[in-house]
Amino acid sequence: MSGSGHHGGRTVAGISVVICVYTEDRWEDILAAVASVRAQSLAALETLLVVDHNASLLDRLAKEYKETEGVRVLANAGPRGLSAGRNTGIAASGGEIIAFLDDDAVAERDWLRHFAEGYTDPKVFAVGGRTMPIWESRRRPAWFPEEFDWVVGCTYKGLPAGRVRVRNVLGGNASFRRTAFEAAGGFATGIGRDGDKRPLGCEETELCIRLTRARPDAILLIDDRAVIHHRVPAARERFHYFRTRTYAEGLSKALVARSVGADKGLESERRYATRVLPAGVGRGLRDALLARPGGAGRAGAIVAGVVTAAGGYVLGSVRARGAGATFSVVEIGKEADGEEGAAA
Q1: How far is Cα 130 from Cα 259, in angstroms, rounded to an integer?
Q2: What's residue 1's pLDDT?
Q3: What pLDDT band is residue 171 in, cutting at 50, 70 and 90?
Q4: Is residue 174 within 8 Å of 126, Cβ to Cβ?
Q5: How far apart are CA 124 and CA 194, in angstroms?
Q6: Gyration radius of the chain over CA positions
Q7: By C-alpha distance, which of 190, 148, 199 is closest to 319?
Q8: CA end-to-end span of the chain, whole Å?
Q9: pTM of this prediction?
Q10: CA distances from residue 320 to 40, 93, 186, 311 in whole angstroms, order as listed
């Protein structure tokens, strides 16, 4: 399974990188993501491209990487969606550490090296990194508050700097010890993204909380030197997407809180809502008074983001109580039997 392990790391017995893909529209992005993994200063054991129920993309990628050592293409063995794709990758991988990279992102050269350093402490079960936006319009929209960069899958203002303990890592730039999945199970299906449908998230939050319940001694880190650059398409630079995504986050958070309890499910959000966001509104209003561009827009966007997320949370809580929303946790390896021949 770990065929190209001859150049694995010194600190850990190899890192497998999983990239989940679903659309040929991102063909160039996918090639760039794989190239960035192959250029790492600490070589990956293998790169696994998991294709989400798209036969033509599966076929095209299998042809593209047929001769490439250390790159494997396989089909998502579970239901459609990012969580099942990740679970397929975990089950098929050979590394002691499994890292995840978004299909529309590129990793800096020392990305895996910084991840590996974290695991020299045996109590560390997950290490995340810093995700920087690449705006398609070449610059951040003046109204878009940095406190809400999570809306576009990036590291947001308010996260502590350096290498710090966190409640959860963010899925597009994260790594886990294999034993984390043995302790807690895989990513929950039915909670996260499914292609381009409503952009629900939080599946990594739910997994991380579940992990620390299963292993109370587990340490989860973010190391902001482990940097990836994530593409933000023009459609996601618009206020309409901002509103849709913050609403969806509220819905997802309600599911997580229902699963793990509101105390754990919302502890990071409380600090964010009571300290980070009011400071952001204050900065926006100050910028508006100083006639700096976008200040009032940023303050307004923060308020709008809070209101729509809260609305999503309330509706999601009502639905969850009525058992209108469910998700399930998969034991890794159970649903992915036979994935080895999937790309044939």
Answers
A1: 27
A2: 37
A3: confident
A4: yes
A5: 30
A6: 20
A7: 190
A8: 16
A9: 0.82
A10: 43, 34, 21, 14
